[in-house]
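In the previous chapter we treated chains in isolation. Here, by contrast, the input contains two separate entities that must be folded as one system, with a combined length of 301 residues.
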Amino acid sequence: MNKLELAFFGLCSVIALLGAVVTVGAKNPIRGAMGLLSTIIGIAGLYLMLAAEFLAAIQLLVYAGAVVILFLFVIMLLGPSAQSKRDARGAVARYVGAAALLVSGLGAMVLVMRTQSGTPTALPAVPPQFGTIESIGHELFSTALVPFELSGALLLVAVIGAVAVARGKQVDPTLLPAADAKPSQAPAPNAAQTKEARS
Amino acid sequence: MTVPLEYFVIVGAALFMTGAVGFLIRRNLLVLLMSIELMLNAVNLTLVAFNRQHVGGHTGQIFTFFIIAIAAAEAAVGLAIVLAFFRLRSTVRSDDADLLRN
């Protein structure tokens, strides 16, 4: 096994796994978003090793360039309340469930590794044109044409839906006092002020 | 000889489990969405790795392409829902999403 290749694989997977752990464990959501970014960069490196140059570029463009930035925008829009306080309600059940899932997943991985025949599966040689934009585009516009067009429609619907949901209800100004009279059970002490400031 | 297929699949499985555990133990809606993204990324990595083994076609990479598109749409709609929820309850804790319970 090529030492350099193995080192690159190890580097990328360590970056990805550390980023995943940070994403899940970070108290501050901004740190979580940075962990997600590191995971995405590590996975893009693994795509490069797997001869998927086009997907590595797409991964960086769409995930690192759009999704993580969108997360950061929302976190900064929410301000300090994006970091929810911890409380102990139901914590035991959640952690027991998560531990059971973790143990069963690790057990499945160990079983799969033990049942394999000993020699790891060597990957075949990469044919020319494998994973390039030309070949993927050719396949995308021939065999996968219908899903491609449908995904365009899906993205349009998602954009319209996201705008419609995030925009909220446009309140009639004459009805504002009635809308504000509803008691809010928000735990944050400054919730009423922000609501007034927004309206 | 290149890095064997199993290594990539193991990394994908570990990433998926991290995302699944995070989805179960966290309550911040933003972190839950990020955990979903982690799981989708892990599945993508596995698909690309298996496509690398069967180099005759690009089925796995095409699937990954569509999953990336759908994940972007899901993130946009999910974050819009988080914003609408925050406007309603001034919090992003998933436990406070209990308007239909009482």
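The helical segments of chain A are 3-25, 29-49, 53-78, 91-115, 133-140, 145-167, 176-180, 191-198. Chain A has eight helices and no strands. Compare these points with the single-chain example from earlier in the chapter.
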